[in-house]
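Reader question, answered in our methods column.
A reader sent in the components of a multi-part assembly and asked whether the whole thing could be modeled at once rather than chain by chain. We filled in our standard form and ran it. Here is what they sent:
COMPLEX SIZE: two components
ENTRIES:
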Amino acid sequence: MQQSAHPGRSGALLIAVLIVLCPTAAAVEPLPEPPSAPGAGPLPEICPVPTGANPLRAMETARGFSVSSCSSTACHGGPKAGNHDVQSFAATLWVDGDPHARAYEVLHDPRSQRMARLLGIGPAHQARQCLACHSVQAESRAPLPKGVLADGVGCAACHGDATQWESRHFLPEWKMLSPAERASLGYRELGSPRERADTCVRCHVGASDREVDHDLIAAGHPRLFFELATFQRLWPRHWSPRDRAEAAADFTERSWAVGQAAALQAVAELLDTRAHRAVRAVEKPMAAAAKPWPEFAEFDCYSCHRSLGPNADVQDHRARPRPPGAPTWQPWYVAAALLLENQVGTESSAARELAAEFAEVRRLLDAGWADADEERLRRIRFEARGMAAAADRLATELSARPVVVLDGTPASFDRMVAARPDEWHRWDGAVQALLALEASRAGGPARHDGRPPPRVRSALEALRDSLRFPPGVDAPLGFDAERFQRARADIP
Amino acid sequence: MLAATTLGPAVSGFIAMLMLAGTMAACRAEELPGVAASGFAFKGSGLCVKCHRTEQGEWCDVATTTVWRHDAHSRSHLALLPDNPRTRAMEHALGIKAAETVSCVACHTHPAAEPPPEEEDDVVHAGISCETCHGAGAGYFEPHMEKRWRFLSVAEKGVLGMRDLRDPVLKAENCLSCHLGDVASGRVISHAMYAAGHPPLPAFEMETFSRAMGPHWKRVWEKAPRVQAAAAAAGYHTEAASETHRALVGTLVALRSSATLVQDYARLAAEPGDRPQAPWPELALYDCQACHHDLRIPSGRQAAGYGRLVPGRPTIARWPRAAAGVALAVAGQPDDVEALLSPWVAVLNRRPFGADADLEPGAPESLERIDAAIRALQAVRRDDGLDDRRREIAERLSAAGLRCGDIDSARLVAWIMLGAMEGNAAWPAEARDAVAANLARDAAIGVPRPPAEAAALPPFWQTSLEAAANANLETLRSAFRLPPAAQGSGR
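And here is the structure of the entire assembly that came back:
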């Protein structure tokens, strides 16, 4: 467990005293102003702080981001044994078992090093595009010291920059503050699925300042997929399972639905960002910021990445509006959108709107998928923003619903597949369907760990096994969509 | 009924070069429409076969038509007919009629075609005919019957519209215009066509494929001694020293064409006006395997690295490179093919498919180097040292094969190597047979068979795909190892 070698709170007090008593030792800077729109969207930006010159200032900046600052024994880094207050050993749990704690370490692995070499970006653990997701650097304007980067995706990545609330959040008055007031200080509530999803998708889908593009994937990075309910289930918790939000019977189902909508919003915003860069590239082709279009990572990996066998040639194009040879856009999220519509969207205008916007974006990307014509790119941006707004509205609506219930019956899935048979022959769709099925069967208090009841568990396990990649292959070779649908329909 | 009325207006730009004739019942020159790029009119192959039907003397000594009957080129037009299921599927997927689409017609048939008498009146009725390859005959029809014609230079024959295919450069350019692609004559297979079902174009080696055609010619050095003496006296060396040298020239032409194809297309795409004429990018111009490979872990591609290029972006065809490297080395140049191609490759790599405007007709130094290597290879003469030279080439090919990075390149190297070893007195017979057997054993090498054998086999492109999909690069490479007896004797 990481013990704080940091000054900690007493150190901060000392520094404050020093600053007050020794005005010449350090220029006194005012605390950053709260932003004008509290509680909305991403973390508020802190004022730029000068770097390098004043180590005390750097430490103060870093403190809001470092795990060690949160994990002192008296705070969140207490012992687990015999301790019933999870909050007091949250950091202990996190450091011990959370994969996010290893996010920076992973950059030293041979695979990461080879990736960085192939991309020519210098050592991976110092490269901006790696650190953007693999550390909390993206949350901070100032370069963070190595000690903080080594935390990986630390507390601040999800809970927010603690600079302004670290010294307040344990005081009685903290609970009196409204969520908006807390957000204005940079604190992120993570109780609800929406808040969690919005935080996760920034890295697990991507954002304007952080993305996994095809250049990275070709160099060796795994492809990204995200589904909130499953990720939550697999993720070791560092909070109480009897958390208010998680105690709800429909928590898993709500997480699934809201998570899908939030992910679709992030996908649309990322498309907008990429199209924007492509427009700039049309205007200034040689500019450093000019990024390639199309971005291959937006498309189905296995549309292209399959060896050409003698029977892989003549395809049935009747059902698909795409011209022959064009890959599918975002198959993982196509399936998400269809499942959302099917499972929770039958009476929701927001869901219908999202489906329509999604279809429009797909249509634009299918016709001439690689064309970087400026007019078309602007159109794509427009539609993508529309899709993002629709997804946002749906996520809000789903969050506000008193109860979220997924109709996980075989009949509902059958209807969905029958309505659009051409969409359900891809592996991505099968996996999403399985995850939706699991979420729908996991309804119940979180103390069941979001898992389906035992009687269907083994059937679902078998279905899951059928979707695994063959050994040595990073693709669903041998995936048989028909067999999957038959097996899925047999799940009680 | 002129072709122009059956082909759509959009095609008219190409019609000047390729026009399909109407009714062919009477194949008289003055009735045939259409003029070749050379500016000469077509005479119709009916006229060619009147003489080139039987052996006549020691020059015109191949029974052209009896061989041609078995040549797949004579049947290529059948791919345009909807009774072919693949054609039907493609037409359906693309929403076209193959017989009326320039991209199909440009390769699969010939402008001034001649039907066998029993076929109906149809614009599409014969495959690749004589003049498609040899050039439209109006200019050379009379002159070429004279004896002095045969040893004229390539340029002199070209003035009258004959493409002298004894010249390996002209032959390679001719074959590659369909078997790789040529923008000027509308011979570009689009990726949509491939996705709709068009068989992929296999890596092309001129001499190997010629043998598989069933050659309807004889080399000068295969003719009667008197003819050979006459050729030597006339200083006629158009054919290059051996099949192996021709093959190497062919790979250099292929290397050049693989780059200039993309360049020419880019120029077309960059032209102002409506984009559909040549939409950019055209995926089919790039190396198929760049995308179409199964994702494996660990990944051989990542292990091999990408040089200074951004990973994961497609590049121009890889298959000519290994063999072209050997060709450069034999011609006395550094065999660094990657450096030669870098002007094009670097531009393409900047964005996934490059930018049409960036692919300038640049890289003159690279083109000049390739041309210089071709000239050096063509300057080699047939003499007593020829077998030793071929043996040296085979050894270089073996070295190239041992470090080949992909199946298609390996096949080309193997095919040329087999040719270099054939009938080579400078090579111990057992060693020759051992290496040949080794190479033949690997299905991925899959030498295309001549018509007599090919008739019984599945189509070459199909076995080609299957073998490539299942090939193991390590095993393949090891097939190039020379047994100790065959290794260099210090020459």
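What stands out: Chain B has two domains: 3-147+155-234, 243-297+307-486. Confidence is low (pLDDT under 50) at residues 1-33, 112-125 of chain B.
Send us your own complexes using the same form.
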